[in-house]
């Protein structure tokens, strides 16, 4: 039985946003849980339950382009100004002064930007798998193309013809069957990960995600699924309805975000926690090396034996760490 709080709506930053809320309204600062791609607030179902039962107020939005939230047409409507502005608008709607922002995958990029752009609304930040870096020395898309070639999925996502959107959108069940699994065991002699802008080198062969999905057959996949059939149905039904373009548009703003962040001080000046997953091929723990340089008040925590979907693969451990850190730092 899947437990989720009831869906609510807020007019924020020019869009209607769907969100879920649990826990006592009196608790401050609350946690705002920000999902990645291709996910939605439902990815935090375990944390919504565990944290609220621990007496912590917790809010999980379907972010711009996803789930129950609006999907504006223009690509630049998904840039970092809009994505962080949506979260400020959600706090305004809920009459919340400051929150702790928790982000996984793409949600991680956004929550690390919150204290750079809206410091007066941020009590703390938690990155799940996604580290915080300084601004890239050059256009990130150019760097990824140079390093990984034209088939690397983020480079492919720049395609104005939107071919990746069509591939995922016409194979929704295949997409979640393929993505939402525990990683295959890594051989003991496998080389260490070598991160660039969030992409581990050993994942190189599998980075052509659209083609991987187009050719995928679950019958030949030995990896363990992390979703029950009932949970997978929630993802499949939602993305069948919304398509994938809203989320992919976040990737289409990599260059714009890089250009527009030129004058931004990248130091994070709030209490921060970095939760890393031992076996995440795309965002390996080594990607978080050196974060201390930009985050003076940082704690790191490693979740062993977890792949990329950490809060769904190891829900009890992630929830327990969030509760422990929140109590230690904020009472």
UniProtKB/TrEMBL annotation:
Keywords associated with the record: Hydrolase
InterPro entries reported for this sequence: AB_hydrolase_1 (IPR000073), AB_hydrolase_fold (IPR029058), Epox_hydrolase-like (IPR000639)
GO molecular function, one term: hydrolase activity
Pfam families: Abhydrolase_1
UniProt keyword Calcium, yes or no: no
Signal peptide: none
AB hydrolase-1 domain span: 29-315
Domain of life of the source: Bacteria
Keyword Metal-binding: no
Name used for this protein in its record: Pimeloyl-ACP methyl ester carboxylesterase
Natural source organism: Bradyrhizobium lablabi
């Amino acid at each position: 039985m899947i437990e989720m709080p009831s869906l609510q709506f807020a007019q924020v930053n020019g869009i209607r946003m769907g969100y879920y809320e649990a826990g006592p309204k009196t608790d401050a600062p609350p946690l705002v849980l920000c999902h990645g791609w291709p996910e939605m607030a439902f990815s935090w179902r375990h944390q919504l339950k565990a944290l609220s039962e621990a007496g912590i107020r917790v809010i999980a939005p379907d972010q711009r382009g996803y789930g129950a939230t609006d999907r504006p047409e223009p690509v630049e409507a998904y840039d970092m100004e809009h994505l962080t502005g949506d979260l400020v608008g959600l706090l305004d709607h809920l009459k919340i002064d400051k929150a702790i922002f928790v982000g996984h995958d793409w949600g991680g990029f956004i929550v690390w930007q919150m204290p750079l752009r809206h410091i007066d609304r941020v009590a703390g930040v938690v990155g799940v798998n996604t580290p915080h870096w300084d601004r890239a020395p050059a256009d990130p898309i150019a760097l990824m193309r140079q390093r990984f070639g034209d088939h690397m999925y983020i480079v492919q996502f720049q395609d104005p013809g939107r071919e990746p959107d069509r591939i995922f959108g016409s194979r929704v069940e295949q997409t979640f069957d393929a993505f939402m699994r525990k990683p295959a065991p890594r051989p003991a002699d496998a080389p260490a990960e070598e991160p660039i802008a969030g992409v581990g080198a050993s994942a190189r062969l599998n980075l052509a995600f659209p083609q991987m999905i187009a050719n995928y057959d679950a019958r030949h996949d030995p990896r363990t699924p992390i979703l029950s059939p009932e949970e997978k149905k929630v993802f499949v039904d939602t993305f069948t309805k919304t398509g994938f373009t809203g989320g992919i548009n976040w990737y289409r703003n990599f260059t714009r975000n890089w250009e527009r962040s030129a004058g931004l001080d990248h130091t994070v000046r709030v209490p921060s926690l970095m939760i890393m997953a031992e076996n995440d091929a795309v965002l390996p723990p080594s990607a978080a090396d050196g974060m201390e340089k930009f985050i003076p008040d940082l704690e790191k925590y490693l979740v062993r034996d977890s792949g990329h979907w950490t809060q769904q693969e190891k829900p009890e451990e992630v929830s327990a760490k969030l509760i422990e850190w929140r109590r230690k730092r904020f009472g």
